[in-house]
Amino acid sequence: MGLKGGLHTTGAKWFMIESQRHSYHLVDPSPWPISGSLGALATTVGGVMYMHSFQGGATLLSLG
Q1: Chain-centre distance of CA 17, in angstroms?
Q2: pTM for the whole thing?
Q3: 48, 58 Cβ separation under 8 angstroms
């Protein structure tokens, strides 16, 4: 049994704590939030363009 860094650890638990840098979970970066927000922006702008009869509004609405 040992006490290091304010954490009481024993045996196999020691390896798990040493391999972690943070006491909280960090997720890997994901491209989906930016992709989703760009799609929502294209849908919104395309919808407004379509409702105001701008050329290309329906296409942008569909792509978004």
Answers
A1: 26
A2: 0.57
A3: no
For 46, the token pair is: 């395309």
Residues 6+ apart with CB under 8 A from 64: 39, 40, 41, 42, 43, 44, 45, 46, 47
| Per-domain boundaries in the chain | 33-63
Query: Is the sign of the CA dihedral 14, 16, 21, 22 positive or negative?
Result: negative
Residue 46 exposed, middle or buried by CB count within 10 Å (0-12, 13-18, 19+): buried
Cβ-contact 19, 9 below 8 angstroms: no
Measured in Å, how far apart are the chain's first and last C-alpha atoms?
Answer: 58
pLDDT tens profile 5-38: 555 555 555 555 555 566 788 888 898 999 999 9
